[in-house]
Design goal:
Elements (H helix, E strand, L loop, with lengths): L15 H30 L2 H7 L4 H8 L2 H21 L8 H18 L1 H12 L11 H21 L9 H17 L1 H8 L6 H19 L23 H7 L1
Helix pairs in contact: 1-2, 1-4, 1-6, 3-4, 4-7, 5-7, 5-8, 5-10, 7-8
């Protein structure tokens, strides 16, 4: 009978999975806190101390996972782009119905900016820095490439069916859609005061969305297609709830 004392005891297995999960949770917590802090204070005002406090972590953990404050800010920018990219990829689009598909893309983009003000604020911050942080990202182009590719597929389908022009550049249409959504959202407060119109009211938002859809569809429409699209109507419908003074200023 073998001596049980000669049989080596199995070494306890390292709980690497648990540690990795804990490390990922810490990293995610820092990223989430940094997104809020940078959106509130900007890049210069969003200190490492504020972020670590908001994440209930330590300064050294930020340097451990992200290398520097700039590295963390780049990760935040990549994160907000990725979330928009994931949300866009989840839309059920049928490119064989190009008018409907392009309309859905427009609704998504305008709605995403409106529902995610932190996204707009962080992009404003980065533009103040002339894009010097996001330009160092190796992943940023992945997200823009998918958005442009979706529009490219829709435009190609529309052109093949004789519905859309054949000389369209997907990047141009993407910029047209993005600019109408981004500018309206990023400048909604100042424009409300400047125009004397409540741009955040449901009526104003619906009016603008309908106008953008009509504008983009008129832009891409083939010249061979007879224009039966009615002109944008009820331009004052959403203004009826405004005080008389505001309506006078906008006229």
């Amino acid at each position: 009978m073998a001596d049980s004392r000669s049989i080596p005891k199995p070494k306890p297995q390292r709980r690497t999975g648990v540690r990795e999960a804990a490390a990922q949770a810490t990293r995610d917590s820092i990223l989430k806190a940094a997104t809020k802090v940078f959106a509130k204070y900007g890049y210069d005002g969003g200190s490492v101390e504020k972020i670590s406090k908001a994440a209930k972590s330590y300064d050294r953990m930020i340097y451990y996972y992200f290398g520097s404050k700039e590295g963390l800010f780049i990760a935040v920018l990549e994160g907000i782009y990725q979330r928009m990219d994931d949300a866009e990829a989840a839309i059920a689009l049928d490119a064989s119905r190009p008018v409907e598909a392009l309309t859905e893309v427009i609704r998504f983009v305008l709605g995403y900016y409106r529902k995610n003000p932190e996204f707009v604020t962080l992009l404003n911050t980065e533009n103040l820095h002339k894009g010097r942080h996001i330009s160092k990202s190796l992943r940023a182009r992945e997200y823009s490439s998918r958005a442009v590719a979706i529009i490219s597929e829709i435009l190609a389908s529309g052109a093949a069916q004789g519905l859309f022009r054949k000389d369209l550049v997907a990047r141009d249409i993407y910029l047209l859609i993005a600019s109408t959504g981004y500018f309206y959202t990023s400048n909604r407060h100042t424009l409300t005061a400047f125009l004397g119109e409540p741009l955040e009211s449901p009526e104003a938002i619906t009016h603008w969305e309908d106008f953008v859809i009509e504008t983009v569809l008129r832009t891409v429409r083939s010249d061979d297609i007879q224009d039966n699209t009615p002109p944008h109507e009820d331009t004052t419908k959403w203004q009826k709830s405004q005080p008389a003074q505001s309506r006078a200023r906008s006229s």
